[in-house]
Each structure stands twice: as C-alpha cells, then as structure tokens.
C-alpha cells in the first residue's frame, strides 16, 4: 500500500477518493438489492468492490465482498430468493469498509 502511494505520487489521493465514492455506491446498491431480494444485483454489486479493494490492498473488504458475491450467485443460480443469510455479512462489509475508509483517507491526506 505504501509502495503504491510512493509510486503514484499526486495521483494517489484522487484514486483513493474515486475508490471511496465508487465503493460506497456499490455497497448502497448491494443493500438495495438485499432489500429487494435481487441476488443477481447483489452479486454484481459485490464484484467490483471485491476487485477494486484487492487492487488497493484493502484485503478484508475484498475477501468479504468475494464471499458475498459467491453466496449471492449460488442463491441466484439455484433460483432462491431469500437473501436473509447475507444481511449480517453485508452489515459487516459496510462496517469494515468504513474502518478502511478512515485509514485510506488519512494515508491519502483526505481527512
């Protein structure tokens, strides 16, 4: 993470800002999908969060988003509509993201 910060220089803060904005949008979209029982949209919302978090080294968010994506895809592929099993995990993802957001903002000088 710190190597990326040094390598990117002035481009680091805008990249972090974009990640934070997009990630918050993906999480909100996933929460809406959960509320509406839309497993496909939930999986599709978790996917870019998984990928972008991994690229930035936000591994906890990436792994949890991957788990949510996989479980939502199984639910969708088997024709189920009950997403209640993902409710607690999505709350955990939101909390973990907010914890990571604080650290990223501090490192990028956005606080």
Structure, described:
The chain is an all-alpha fold and 111 residues long. 82% of the residues lie in helices and 0% in strands. The protein contains five helices and no strands. It has helices at residues 2-8, 12-36, 39-56, 59-77, 87-108. Helix 2 runs antiparallel to helix 3 (39-56), helix 2 (12-36) packs antiparallel against helix 5 and helix 4 packs antiparallel against helix 5 (87-108). The radius of gyration is 15 Å and the shape is elongated. The model has no long low-confidence stretch (mean pLDDT 94).
In short:
This protein is mostly helical and 111 residues long. It has helices spanning 2-8, 12-36, 39-56, 59-77, 87-108.
């Amino acid at each position: 993470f710190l190597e990326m910060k040094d390598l990117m220089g002035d481009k680091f803060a805008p990249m972090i800002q974009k990640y934070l904005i997009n990630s918050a949008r993906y999480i909100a979209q996933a929460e809406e999908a959960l509320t509406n029982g839309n497993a496909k949209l939930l999986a599709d919302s978790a996917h870019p969060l998984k990928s972008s978090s991994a690229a930035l080294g936000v591994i906890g968010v990436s792994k949890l988003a991957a788990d949510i994506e996989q479980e939502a895809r199984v639910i969708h592929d088997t024709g189920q509509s009950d997403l209640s099993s993902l409710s607690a995990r999505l709350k955990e993802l939101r909390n973990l993201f907010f914890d990571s957001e604080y650290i990223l903002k501090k490192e990028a000088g956005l606080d």
